[in-house]
Specification:
Blueprint: H1 2-16, H2 24-39, E1 79-80, E2 99-103, E3 106-107, E4 114-115, E5 118-121, E6 127-129, E7 134-142, E8 147-154, E9 159-168, E10 175-176, E11 181-185, E12 195-202, E13 205-207, E14 210-211, E15 214-215, E16 219-223
Parallel strand pairs: 1-13, 2-16
Antiparallel strand pairs: 2-5, 3-4, 5-12, 6-11, 7-8, 7-10, 8-9, 9-11, 9-12, 12-13, 14-15, 15-16
Helix pairs in contact: 1-2
Length: about 230
């Protein structure tokens, strides 16, 4: 299935993209068209039925509690830098490039605020993928913070946030599969350079997604300068 999608994306690019066009914005727009064609991100969310081929949890009965709240975050003053949340369903990396952290979870150097997530290095135009199965609670533009941001309510009742995107590939209430493209990496909002700001939360708490030098205990990460 994954190989078939890769081939479809490649075919889509060859079909729609003239060989003489080298403009990066054109390529980003083209990627969005291709992902729309393959994943149906601009169609009715009920069409995304491939979610069953992954090891995903069933949608809980209380899944829609506060789902339609328009706030990007809830009580973000609460934090726990502990590994106390069980991720029992499939998990993917948010980027298909080496995971390099440019800013970690915790108190930032200026001690003015607590960094609720981690920042991953990327290049403009890199694809960002959904870490878990779930449904999009928010896909919007936040001019004073996250820029283009996607918040996914996951079936394990966590929420994942993907910030500073160049563009979102999904819409509100759309079902997303683990490993599905959900955005194009960028430098929007209060961002000093291209990167992905990633957060994971549950029950009003944010959690450090890096445990023992790995992302969700599964994928190796390195830190800028190491």
């Amino acid at each position: 299935m994954k190989m078939k999608r890769v081939l479809l994306v490649g075919f889509c690019i060859l079909l729609f993209h003239p060989v003489y066009s080298q403009d990066k914005e054109d390529v980003v727009d083209l990627l969005i068209k291709c992902y729309d064609l393959i994943y149906g991100s601009t169609s009715d969310s009920s069409a995304n039925t491939d979610i069953s081929i992954f090891t995903c949890l069933q949608r809980p009965d209380n899944f829609y509690d506060n789902f339609y709240d328009s706030r990007i975050g809830f009580d973000l003053l609460k934090f726990k830098e502990v590994d106390s949340f069980s991720f029992s369903d499939s998990a993917s990396v948010p980027l298909k490039i080496p995971l390099v952290i440019t800013s970690g979870y915790g108190v930032e150097r200026n001690n003015e605020r607590f960094h609720q997530g981690v920042d991953f290095r990327l290049n403009m135009g890199d694809t960002v993928y959904s870490v878990f199965c779930g449904e999009v609670r928010i896909s919007t533009y936040d001019p004073e913070g996250y820029g283009n941001v996607v918040v996914v309510r996951n079936y394990n009742m966590s929420e994942t946030l993907y910030g500073h995107l160049e563009k979102s590939l999904v819409k509100n209430e759309q079902k997303v599969m683990v490993g599905q493209p959900i955005g194009i990496g960028g430098n929007t909002g209060e961002s000093s350079g291209p990167h992905l700001h990633f957060e994971i939360r549950s029950s009003g708490y944010s959690f450090n997604p890096i445990v023992a030098g790995k992302f969700l205990k599964k994928y190796k990460v390195t830190y800028k300068g190491t």
